[in-house]
Amino acid sequence: MALVAIDAENPEPEIIARAADLLRRGQLVAFPTETVYGLGANALNATAVARIFAAKARPAWNPVIAHVSTIADARALTASWPAIADLLATAFWPGPLTLVLPKRDIVPDIVSAGLPAVALRVPSHAVARALIAAAGFPIAAPSANRFTELSPTTAAHVEASLGNRVDMILNGGSADVGIESTVVDLTSDQPVILRPGVISRDMIARVVGVPVGMASDRQPEHGPRLSPGMMDRHYAPRADVWLFDAPDVRALRQSLAQRESRAGDGGIAAMVLDWSLALPEQVRVIPMPNNPSAYARALYATLHDLDASGSAIVAIERPPFTDAWAGIHDRLSRAAH
Ligand code: TXA
Ligand code: MG
Fold this sequence. Notes:
Order of helices and strands: EHEEHEHHEHEHEHEEEHEHEHEEHEH
CATH class of the largest domain: Alpha Beta
Number of strands: 15
Shape: globular
CATH topology of the largest domain: DHBP synthase
Structural class: alpha/beta
CATH superfamily of the largest domain: DHBP synthase
Largest sheet: 11 strands, mixed
Distance between the termini: 33 Å
Radius of gyration: 20 Å
Helix content: 25-40%
Bound molecules: threonylcarbamoyladenylate, magnesium ion
């Protein structure tokens, strides 16, 4: 595996050419996007995409996103393109939004996990854009981590998770958005958010002018998943994650005191918004930014760091329950599940 530094704003053409050549030959290249690092393969080559599933140990029922350069390139992979897709693509592409639309036959079934729809995204990161352009085909790319592990926001995270299972890692520094794209299903009459992200439900509703559903509100307790990739436990660090509300800090202190006496614990950390919370002295307090985009940027990096330092318990103060924090809430509850 080659770990190659690349300029995040003006990617060196010769490095991009090398990476595109690997993709052309059916190999795997991890690359930065504005959300998290992706594990890329030629989306039109089923054998190459199968290597993504093998490297991640990703179950075959979990479809991957195809990354393209333009709205026209996205359309070319779809069997229908409703007006609402145009509105959303024009408003938010390039950027952290993924649209799920009926697929054309040229998209191999393995990309959509056998579903009749494909997930499409036009990323804004200069390295991702240059790579897609140089390749000349759509790039299938899930987050570049082993299945159910934390998503990577740096090349070092990718290396730690996938190592030699990937042929090349492009190191373009830290991902700016920090959590995965918002995924919106446009295959039925009403748009439905399958995975919340920094592009929020309100932002989407303002653009489309119709009510926007949330798959999490509709998911029956039993029965098939509305969104195949949304396992309850996902995006999870190795530490035990406890969520708490600031007013319940006393109860948290008691629970921590009970756990603390156990031998072998690798330490307790608390990620807090209210920096003045009274926590036991031995708790490592990590102040988190009190704004959703800065919080999203820091979230996975903080959890990766805590895992690396062997934390046994991470207590996380719940952010406010507003639309802008919905993507963060989603990742926190999955990490804690
Ligand atoms: O920000 C992102 O979206 C990152 C970067 C690399 O682009 N990618 C990413 O991919 O997070 P992944 O595979 O980790 O998550 C893709 C999500 C999963 O929840 C998957 O189930 C859903 O999108 N998805 C993909 N194709 C779908 C489809 N055809 N129908 C419904 N959901 C789909
Ligand atoms: Mg993922």
